[in-house]
Write a structure and sequence with these properties.
This protein is of the alpha+beta class and 174 residues long. The protein has 2 domains: 51 residues; 118 residues, no CATH class. 35% of the residues lie in helices and 29% in strands. The protein contains 5 helices and 8 strands. It has an 8-stranded antiparallel beta sheet. Strand 5 and strand 6 form a beta hairpin. Helix 2 packs across helix 3.
């Protein structure tokens, strides 16, 4: 029996029909089935890691996710002209809780930057939305999203508000 276990752990014989036949004839068939199940689970985890570290295209622009699992929508690709409305469909788990809100004004125009927390008091996931209230009523663009990096949305929102201030906007946190 120890020979069979040694063979089962040997990568050269793991996938051969010979080993499978021997294991299925012996009392250690559950061991082989369990080992194959573990390898399948490891493959699923590896695929999830590839998904988290890769990039994917969405209608509103290119979404880039860094190694920490945070996601950023490249606003240059989306031209900041795609709109997503707050609705039950957008957040099926519940109402949006606004964590941080900034309001910026320049020459009678108003823009807002908001960090939304779809899971209520949980800081993750988070979404940074940008609004042009007076220039384009109803306009909303998602600038950044994070699923697993605390502080990512808050920092990017504050940095973006800093850029607006640098461009002459007068901003305040609400």
């Amino acid at each position: 029996m120890s020979l069979l276990i040694t063979e089962a752990l040997n990568p050269k014989t793991l996938f051969t029909g010979y080993l499978t036949k021997r294991l299925l004839k012996g009392a250690v068939a559950p061991l082989m089935i369990s080992a194959l199940g573990m390898m399948s689970a490891m493959n699923v985890v590896a695929q999830e890691d590839l998904t988290q570290d890769g990039l994917e295209e969405v209608e509103s622009g290119s979404v880039y996710e860094d190694a920490q699992g945070s996601t950023m929508v490249n606003a240059a690709d989306s031209s900041l002209d795609n709109s997503i409305e707050h609705s039950e469909d957008a957040y099926p788990d519940g109402d949006v809780v606004y964590g941080i809100r900034y309001s910026c004004a320049l020459n009678g125009n108003t823009r807002r930057v908001e960090v939304d927390y779809p899971n209520g008091p949980e800081p993750l996931p988070c979404i940074v939305n940008y609004y042009k209230d007076t220039e384009q009523p109803g306009f909303q663009s998602t600038l950044w999203q994070a699923m697993s990096t605390p502080g990512y949305c808050e920092q990017n929102a504050a940095d973006f508000v800093g850029k607006l201030i640098g461009w002459g906007w007068s901003c305040e946190e609400l």
